[in-house]
Automatic annotation (TrEMBL):
This is Ribose-5-phosphate isomerase A. Its EC number is 5.3.1.6. It comes from Thioflavicoccus mobilis 8321. CDD domains: RPI_A. One of its GO terms (cellular component) is cytosol.
Length: 217
């Protein structure tokens, strides 16, 4: 079975968590399946807070109302994908470059349901290069600081985030203490957000696989 079908299965299972009202949605190919499925029950929800321009465009195509988070207030549910999850449901996100808005919407939600294909579950975070969103003038400075932490940052050239910033993808990092590393990288001047989601990881992880889905909490 291909990876995309496994992503679709995870997205289908996440529909069971949707209640009436407002929900948050993330970004990426797994979330795209979720948005398409959400369109089939759109009468049941009041609207969606989106984490990216790409997801907003897809929601608009389906005629699903998109609300500003400042108007929406606290959300009952956030559904998003991930690049990696460990068994504590701490995540690496930002492969699609939407990490900052994703982290904001996740923080503003009572329950975070993460959907992924089973290849995303890892014993230790860090095989996937860790995305860091940076203010453009700080790119070289932040890169030097990341080298001091033992990483090898690579500028995602030609890519600008929805917030007008840049992404450094950091390889070779030993992520032994994800919570501490999230705080340490976020504290570097010029960093907007690191793609480690540990202080606010997922509450539920739905993994799609060849035999169906399994759920970790
Ligand atoms: C975007 C993300 C995505 O959730 C992550 O990259 C997973 O994407 P996909 O569902 O396409 O595998 O963090 O910033």
């Amino acid at each position: 079975m291909n990876q995309d079908t496994m992503k679709q299965r995870a997205a289908e299972a996440a529909l069971d968590y949707v209640e009436d009202g407002l929900i948050g949605v993330g970004t990426g190919s797994t979330v795209n399946h979720f948005i398409d499925l959400l369109a089939t029950i759109k009468e049941r929800i009041d609207g969606v807070v989106s984490s990216s321009e790409a997801s907003t465009a897809r929601l608009n195509e389906h005629g699903i109302p998109v609300l500003d988070l400042n108007i929406a207030g606290e959300l009952a549910l956030y559904v998003d994908g991930a690049d990696e999850s460990n068994h504590q449901l701490q995540l690496i996100k930002g492969g699609g470059g939407a990490l900052t808005r994703e982290k904001i919407v996740a923080a503003a939600s009572r329950r975070f349901v993460c959907i992924a294909d089973e290849s995303k579950l890892v014993e230790r975070l860090g095989r996937f290069p860790l995305p860091v969103e940076v203010i453009p003038m700080a790119r070289s400075y932040v890169a030097r600081e990341l080298v001091n932490l033992g990483g090898t940052p690579v500028w995602r050239e030609g890519f600008v985030t929805d917030n007008g910033n840049l992404i450094l993808d950091v390889r070779d990092l030993e992520i032994r203490e994800p919570i501490g590393l999230e705080q340490e990288i976020n504290a570097i001047a010029g960093v907007v957000t690191v793609g480690l989601f540990t202080r606010r990881g997922a509450d539920v992880l739905i993994l799609g696989g060849p035999d169906g889905t399994r759920t970790l909490t």
